[in-house]
Design a protein that fits this description.
It is built from 5 helices and 13 strands. It is globular, with a radius of gyration of 18 Å. The protein has a single domain, classed as outer membrane lipoprotein receptor (LolB), chain A. It is α+β, with helices and mostly antiparallel strands. Strands 1-8-9-10-11-12-2-3-4-5-6-7-13 form a 13-stranded mixed beta sheet. The N and C termini lie far apart (67 Å).
Length: 212
Amino acid sequence: MRPLAILLLLPISALAAPLSEPETSALVARIAASRSGRTVQADFVETKTLPLWKNPIIESGTMAFEPPDRFLRKSNNLILCDGETLWMYYPEFQQVERYPLSSRGPGEIFAALGQALRFEDLQKVFRVSAEALPDGFRITLTPGSGRLRQTIERLTLELDASLRLRSSSLSTRRGDRIETHYSNEKLLAPGSVDFTFQPPASATVVAPLGGR
């Protein structure tokens, strides 16, 4: 078999070239600069695998995030962070869950995910490594703080050669795995997406971690 044919049969991971620490820092800074002051919006397809579930859960919808800490994920359910509070709205059950953004659990995970997708100050929260792929880049984030490390095991992000987000893979310490593929990424002016949420009058609002 010819060398070129062998290369074509190799998985992408086998062709990845690790970047040095300075190269990784430069890449992260370049990505952050390309998104600075912009609202990022994209379509997504998410596959969630949970240890106690026989079959994975597959959802699709749209998501958006805006510096410094606003996040929106809209599918059958709604997950929204307005900068202070993480809201989870389940229309089927007419229930709203409310979490302080600084709380452990969902609030902590989505705060970390939002920071990762902004690519800002990553080294303050994560240990960062990167690889150059034939058609883009892979960035692996491992929590550096003890508290976050208790929740998140690893977050891997893949971008195409134009630095558009292509996919993410999140692994938690309890065995959850969330694989997300993104498409139609857009960089919008701040204020283009509404990150406010008012619970419907018909919904029951609960605070699983306490508080009002």
